[in-house]
Amino acid sequence: MLPLIAVPTTAGTGSETTGAAIMDLPKHECKSGIRQRCIKPLLAIVQVVEEFLLAIKMDNYSMPRNVAIYSGFDVLCHALESYTALPYNVRTPRPSRPDLRPLYQGSNPISDVWSLEALRIIGKYFRRSVADNSDEEARQNMLLASTFAGIIGKYFRRSVADSSDEEARQNMLLASTFAGVGFGNAGVHLCHGLSYPISSQGKLYYDKDYPDTKPLIPHGLSVVTTAVADFEFLASSCPERHAQVAMQLGADVSESSNSSYIASKLCDEIRSFMQDFKVPNGLEAMGFQFSDIDKLSTAAVNSVVNIAITPKSTDREIISKIYEKSLKDFVIK
């Protein structure tokens, strides 16, 4: 393949650092990923000069509010999932040589560094980068967090709250890139694996900041919708790691090492972002009903790459329960 130079225009996918691409086949209600090292970009231009942005008519600062929000949630879940994925030296079957490891090999010492830093950035800049689309610091850091996945806790709210907050948007851009390096090596598990059926089967939802030519559930929204139920289920697999990501987002988990306590603290942080940004409250708000869970679960069990690095044994029954809990994500106050 010819060398690929990638220029990210949202603080979200981190695809400028990964060997993954998404395919969507609406006719077959199928959405999934293609993963191969040969499609990794040779070079990524993350913090680009203004003249270049104007020339290609692409600008992280011009993202509509909901695009910034849902892209930020994609960054958040990239970081959370890659850090809590099944460790690379535990997953089976083990390859005979290191170079035969799959692209999504599980959490490892290299991906851990990137994922935790992305979470830190997100916690600081996410809200800022959305609130003010001229907040350059917040938006750029969210983009970097997408690549590095820990800056999230610091910048997610800021990047949303003020779109003119340059610091917040720059940091979210950074977080996006950091998270991409993290999950590009470790992989992502349940949030993403369960998101594909939501996106492909959603027929009723339209979002005001996306084209209204057809129903569309934005990727980041489909990913975060099951995140609370996912981590309530998964936290007991490795309480220490889940406590670490909760702390990076700003939670105080000092009172107990109990996995249920840690899960509640982490999920409170996720819900807080969702409520602050007024995202649709669960699957029901996107047009799904209890009767749709069977079809969603049937499709989700085919996300074998994601399930393979889920840190806890997961089957169709568990997936169905997660979807059921995700019909509503939080209580409206």
TrEMBL record:
GO terms for molecular function: alcohol dehydrogenase (NAD+) activity; hydroxyacid-oxoacid transhydrogenase activity; metal ion binding. It catalyses: (S)-3-hydroxybutanoate + 2-oxoglutarate = (R)-2-hydroxyglutarate + acetoacetate; 4-hydroxybutanoate + 2-oxoglutarate = (R)-2-hydroxyglutarate + succinate semialdehyde. This is hydroxyacid-oxoacid transhydrogenase. Catalyzes the cofactor-independent reversible oxidation of gamma-hydroxybutyrate (GHB) to succinic semialdehyde (SSA) coupled to reduction of 2-ketoglutarate (2-KG) to D-2-hydroxyglutarate (D-2-HG). L-3-hydroxybutyrate (L-3-OHB) is also a substrate for HOT when using 2-KG as hydrogen acceptor, resulting in the formation of D-2-HG. One of its GO terms (cellular component) is mitochondrion. SUPFAM superfamilies: Dehydroquinate synthase-like (SSF56796). Residues 106-151, 152-326 form the Fe-containing alcohol dehydrogenase-like C-terminal domain. Its EC number is 1.1.99.24. Keywords: Mitochondrion, Oxidoreductase, Transit peptide. It is found in: Mitochondrion.
